[in-house]
Amino acid sequence: MGRTIENKKEIVAELKESLSKSQLALVIDYQGLTVAEITDLRRRLRPAGATCKVTKNTLMGIAIQNDEKWQPLSELLKGSSAFLLVQEDFSAAIKAYQDFQKATKKTELRGGVMEGRLLKEPDVKALGDLPSKEQLMAQIAGAINALATKVAVGIKEVPSSLARALQAYADKEKGGEEVSG
User: Fold this and answer.
1) How far apart are CA 11 and CA 60, in angstroms?
2) pLDDT for residue 44
3) Which of 5, 50, 104, 137 has the fewest CB neighbours in a 10 Å radius?
């Protein structure tokens, strides 16, 4: 038995909701994957804040129809499509998919869409090579800490230098008085 119109409308509404929360959508050809393998892919994507939706291209087409941000996705809607919708850390999600793809060798990345731009496979790979959100935060924290340390040392150095200069001046004055007296 096929899906009812109400059921299809629910799926489209769910897709729109998921897309509205996502910053990146990837389209993969999932033909040949077993249910267990799709479940494994979903499990790998979850920690990165991504979901895998397997739906008909026509339903995804309806979901993106009036949304400029996701319109380029229509070029990728062909064949057996699974949609990886990334809400949080796109770098970690891409790495999770790449690890899955290496393990199964059954899927093929068609491309993706981010901020209204169509991404081809090399673009997606470049995004995957970026440091993760946690790595970036650690780098920024390290830079801030280093800067704060330099500022603290600099601030501490000002009174010390001033004290040394005053001491040198006092010593000079004292030395000058002894010579004249």
Assistant:
1) 9
2) 92
3) 5
Q: For residue 181, what pLDDT is reported?
A: 47
- Mean pLDDT, rounded, for 82-91: 87
Q: Quick one: which of 127, 136, 142 has its CA closest to 84?
A: 127
Burial class of residue 168 in the structure, from the number of CB atoms within 10 Å of its CB (0-12 exposed, 13-18 middle, 19+ buried): exposed
* 178 pLDDT more than 80: no
User: Please, what is the angle between helix 90-104 and helix 35-45, to 10°?
Assistant: 150
- DSSP H stretches of helix in 65-132: 90-104, 121-128
* C-alpha distances in Å from residue 99, one per residue of 3, 89, 140: 34, 16, 27
Cross-strand partners of 28: 82, 109
Contact between residue 66 and residue 107 where contact means Cβ atoms under 8 Å apart: no
CB atoms within 10 A of CB 128: 16
| Residues 36, 48: Cα–Cα separation, whole Å | 20
**Tokens 């990728």 appear where?**
76
